[in-house]
Amino acid sequence: MHTPADYLELARAESDEEVLHRLARCPYPFVWHALAGNPRTPPVVLLELSASQDSAWNDNRLLHLLAGHPRADSTVLQAVLGAVAGRLAEGERPYAAVLALAERPELAEEEIRRLGTLRGASARMRGLLRRSLGTRSRPSRSTGTEQVRGGPAGGTAAPDPPPWPPELPP
């Protein structure tokens, strides 16, 4: 007989895809979190996990882990994006997942930006989302080379603007 601790240990360390797939069906959200944190979890299992539900806190943590998973492909990311949008529309706050999705170049900026218009999006989340999207890699106007976080490629980086609005003179 297996205990929940056995499932957790397997979810953290296992690399066999069939075992990972079976673990995704267990009823313990902490096992889902461990699977989403295991870099060997395949995209098909990540996709299955994107539909798992338990409680607001566990669901939001799972979506955050899935959004940042190194093996999350565009199908998984679209499923996570849909789940996050649904939660925001219901008034929930999966803000960490929103910001993790904003870091993924596989998703279009406009898809991510729409999340800020949904009912559960706070003003602070919208501001952090704008900032995160503003720091994505984008082509430089002058040379056509890639501009990477923190400044132009190969150059010195300009400091990031403060996360709060600058004070205006009286």
Please describe what this structure looks like:
- With about 170 residues, the chain is mainly alpha-helical.
- It contains nine helices and three strands.
- The chain starts with a helix and ends in an 18-residue tail after the last strand.
- Mean pLDDT is about 85; it is low at about 140-160.
Task: Provide a quick synopsis of the model.
The chain is mostly helical and 170 residues long.
Instruction: Indicate the structural class.
Output: mainly alpha
* Number of DSSP strand runs: 3
Radius of gyration: 19 Å
Q: Give the SSE order as H and E letters.
A: HHHHHHHHHEEE
Unreliably modeled segments: 139-158
In percent, how much strand structure appears in the residues? under 5%
* Physical arrangement of strands within the biggest beta sheet: 1-2-3
List keywords for this structure.
170 residues, mainly alpha, 3-stranded antiparallel beta sheet, globular
